[in-house]
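Handoff note, outgoing to incoming analyst
You'll be picking up this chain. Sequence as last confirmed:
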Amino acid sequence: MMGEGFQFIDIVLFAMIAAFLILRLRSVLGRHRDSGRSKGVFGAERRPPSQEDEPTMVPEPEKPDEVEEKLKNQQQSDPNLAEEERLDVGLAEIMKASPDFDRAEFLAGVRTAFEIIIKAFAAGDREQLGSLLSTEVLGNFSEAITSRENAKETLETTLVRIVDVALLEVYMDGEVSHISVKIISEQVKVTQNAEGEVVDGNPERVSEITDIWTFARDTKAHDPNWALVATRGPD
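Most recent structure output, in case you need it:
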């Protein structure tokens, strides 16, 4: 009886090994017959992966320097590039040299400087002007003051209000930042002779005046102040 039991177990074991070998052989033969293509979930043939099927890489976000260079190229190729984009190029250059630069603070400073300068010019205060003007501009202002003094004339300027201050041009020249602004103001300007007679202007008339002023600052200097380096009227 015991011998028959062992024979039965041997038969079952051989049968299991035979089944395993048959399944293994079928799987091997099946792979050899395959043409290299497999079926998709819904039956559509799916080609084997190739170089053309490599996943597309998502481009990395552009770096600030790349954006700046892109805007520069656009400016050179398109003369009708929006004014604000051209200003952004210049502002990006200035902020690279002076990370603490703030556009709003600069424009607020222009308003303050404008009021101080026109009042100092009217009063003939060369010392006050010297702290805000470049050597060349100070020389021009001084000549006008001297001419007025020689003619024994006085200038009275009343700044009614500053209507608007807007950026016109922003750029770097080496290490020096340059910003040109358009300043629209309302003023009452009167020039009188030694006898107190009005020789120019009208004390009862408020005039709207547009000035184009250019300020500059050496980004390597410790002095944070900007100097007025050029003045002109509107084109």
